[in-house]
Amino acid sequence: MTAPTASVRLLTLDRDNDRCVACGARGPLEFQHRAAVGQGGSKIPPLVTEGLMLCSSCNARAEADLQTQALFSGWKVRRWVPARYGADKVPVFYTPELSWWRLTPDGERYEVSAAKVAEFMEFVYGDEWARWSAELNRKRWA
Ligand SMILES: [Zn+2]
Fold first, then answer.
1. pTM score of the predicted model
2. How many A from CA of 28 to the centre of ligand 1?
3. How far is Cα 91 from Cα 74, in angstroms, rounded to an integer?
4. Which of 20, 47, 112, 140 is deepest in the core (most CB within 10 A)?
5. How far, in Å, from the CA of 74 to the mean position of ligand 1?
6. C-alpha distances out from residue 42 to 31, 69, 70, 83, Å
7. Residue 119 pairs with which residues in a beta bridge?
8. Ligand 1 centre and the CA of 26: distance in Å?
9. Span from the CA of 66 to the centroid of ligand 1 (angstroms)
10. Residue ranges per domain, the chain?
11. Mean pLDDT in runs of 10 for the chain (142 residues)?
12. How far is the CA of 62 from the centre of ligand 1 (A)?
């Protein structure tokens, strides 16, 4: 996986208010590639819409016990999604703000309603998104 450029890293830090998008921790922060890239990876550095700031703990957990939460929340996107829809179209849940946002190519973001998010995510992921949602609800109440 190719590292982001210094300017993409700084734009991402600014946009995400120097906090982990998943838990709000101030650090240590890492650039999380939203699209999972397989072996070999991409030779092209990621765009600002293709990454976000996660703390090292959440970044590791996004590949493990937080994977469903990461996919549901747009912290990670399935590999085929960016090419088909654009990473900027997949909304991101910002836990510190308890709200959904779309990322823009200039390093800004704008808030979107939970209803719009559900509509889009069901369109992109179909039944899979409903399953993630159900799984997370059951975890929350366990
Ligand atoms: Zn975190």
1. 0.91
2. 9
3. 6
4. 20
5. 14
6. 15, 24, 21, 13
7. none
8. 8
9. 11
10. 6-141
11. 91 97 96 73 83 96 93 92 85 97 96 95 93 90 79
12. 10
